[in-house]
Amino acid sequence: MAALLLKRLTLQTIKTENNCISRCLGKYILHKTIPAQLSLGASVPRLSYLIHAKAFSTVADAQDEAKKKKKSEPAFSNIGRKIHERVIHVLDEAGNDLGNMHRADVIRLMNERDLRLVKRDSGVEPPHYQLLTGAQIHKEQLRLRELEKARPKPGPTLTKELTFSSTIGQHDLDTKNKQIQQWIEKKYKVQITIKKGKNTEEPEHKMEEICNQILQTMPGIATFSSRPQPVRGGKAVMCVLRHLSKKEENAYRETQGTQKEDTLNKENRNNQESDVVHQ
Predict the structure, then answer these.
(1) CA–CA separation, 245 vs 157, rounded Å?
(2) Three-state secondary structure string covering the chain
(3) What are the two backbone dihedrals, phi and then psi, of residue 87, each rounded to the nearest 5 degrees?
(4) What is the per-residue pLDDT across 47-84, written as a single tens digit (0 to 9) for each?
(5) What residues of the chain score a pLDDT lower than 70?
(6) What pLDDT is recorded for position 41?
(7) Distances 217 to 35, 109, 132, 227 between C-alpha atoms, Å
(8) Are 214 and 192 in contact (CB under 8 A)?
(9) Model confidence pLDDT, tens digit, residues 149-182
(10) Which single residue of 186, 225, 266, 278 could bond 242 by disulfide (Cβ 3.0 to 4.6 Å)?
């Protein structure tokens, strides 16, 4: 009897412990599951943000592609009937101003007169367009193409080098001056190196004076890109000449004009004074 009672108590104890363990585990699992679900829910806005950012990036890429396509289009060409603006300012094929027109009216006029539409000025509101024939468009494209070919293309500035002794004779120096001027007129830079002569009694500044003399033979054409400076331990002087820029050429002409006016005014004053003395 006692053994049976002991067995029942043991079974009841085990059952109670199992229920306690189940409750504890259930609370633990519930405690871990809810934050996980909240975390998953919190990640949803982030995902939508990424999707939105991707969509925005796609729109930006499309805009960049449209800009590139617009740049690649010819500067003067028939745009067809794809008029993006509702109202545009129109000129006819003779250059007459037709005023502001609705795009539907412009398309109707194009069909009636067999004309094409080209953009003239998109920087105004409404933008300016012109109706032209196919022959007129072709002629204008050829003209623009010729202008583009005639436009000088910037390239690297080449440098010519010239070396001679400070004891050079005048005839040889004149020959070199002509060669230097030809290079300068072709927009070359000319690097001139003048070596000191073997004559020890030669003035130290003679090499620099020769550089200045060479420049003086080309007034209004050349100037120093690099002024004379000693090289090779003082055994030579080097300078670089270049062609005058447009601004420098204009300044030189203005200076020459002012000097001529001053000279003429001085001569006129001298003549007037001479006439007074003779009277």
Answers:
(1) 13
(2) CHHHHHHHHHHHHHHHHHHHHHHHHHHHHHHHHHHHHHHHHHHHHHHHHHHHHHHHHHHHHHHHHHHHHHHHCCCCCECCCCCCCCEEEEECCCCCEEEEEEHHHHHHHHHHHCCEEEEEECCCCCCEEEEECHHHHHHHHHHHHHHHHHCCCCCCCCEEEEEEECCCCHHHHHHHHHHHHHHHHCCCEEEEEEECCCCCCCCCCHHHHHHHHHHHCCCCCEEEEEEEEEEHHHCEEEEEEEECCHHHHHHHHHHHHHHHHHHHHHHHHHHHHHHHHHC
(3) -125, 135
(4) 444 444 444 445 445 555 555 544 444 567 788 888 88
(5) 1-7, 9-11, 13-75, 152-157, 199-201, 204, 259-279
(6) 42
(7) 91, 66, 55, 16
(8) yes
(9) 877 666 666 899 999 999 899 999 999 999 999 9
(10) 225
- Per the listing, tokens 């002409």 go with 253
**54 to each of 40, 47, 164, how far by Cα in Å?**
21, 11, 68
φ, ψ (nearest 5 deg) of residue 152: -65, 135
Q: Report residue 110 as tokens.
A: 């194009």
